[in-house]
Amino acid sequence: xxxxxxxxxxxxxxxxxxxxxxxxxxxxxxxxxxxxxxxxxxxxxxxxxxxxxxxxxxxxxxxxxxxxxxxxxxxxxxxxxxxxxxxxxxxxxxxxxxxxxxxxxxxxxxxxxxxxxxxxxxxxxxxxxxxxxxxxxxxxxxxxxxxxxxxxxxxxxxxxxxxxxxxxxxxxxxxxxx
Length: 178
Hints:
It contains 6 helices and no strands. It is mainly alpha-helical and about 180 residues long.
């Protein structure tokens, strides 16, 4: 299979899903303590099970999970972690690459969102370092995995990304009550 840029292929194929997640999280005013708490709780429903899935299956070696920072932020605002949502996906390598694509991309989004969080609110999770050189390395290795895969690799990767985006959207809707 020749996928010269798997990231762009995934981005284009999942753009509507990404937009739905952005819309679901737009319901939270990050400058409001209650909304920020619900925002973090929503992420705590989705992020840890996705990170556990990737970690259990090996995943891309250059990543830094953020669940610990998220749990510390929740503790700082006096919340216990909510029940995680179930992840319904198999350990297909293309699925796992796509889940990590969503998780790695969310780090960049977190940098933007962290700027909306007032001083005094915990922000370890959102302000976790986004390292451009690691993002470039991830893209290179994602492209290599896609190129080494069979003709169904991109379709399987889209399934993995869809599961990750759907989990975040569901978590946002649970916490926002919509």
